[in-house]
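Page 47, continued from p. 46.
Same chain as before, 134 aa.
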Amino acid sequence: MELELISQEDALRKASEIKELAFAIAAANGTLPGNCDAPECIQYCTYVALATSLDLGQHCISLNGQPVKVQLGRNYFGMLACFNLHRVSIEEDGSLRLEYVNGAVERYIYVEEIGAWKLEGRNLPIVVPSSSAN
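Result:
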């Protein structure tokens, strides 16, 4: 499995690389890329959506060329976009592990029934507030 972090700049670059091909394929089908189910059209639309939805400094996690789809709520799904990632890896058991620069770790498991990754656990670092002397 190939993991990649995609920034807003990466998404813009990838969208512009595939734009002409996506529009040509869609035109051959008498439509626009957003209404075409060809893989190139889907990729183009995905990269354009990422470029407009990611903030500067934010990254979307991509697995095998597709943004990671996560279950954010019972019937609510989205892409996995994060700030301050240190490392992303696939564990031996197939889970997706995210490590942040502040030491926080998140673990996601893939649930085939819903076709998305679901947060299984989070280990947040303990921050002890400094006491102020009065």
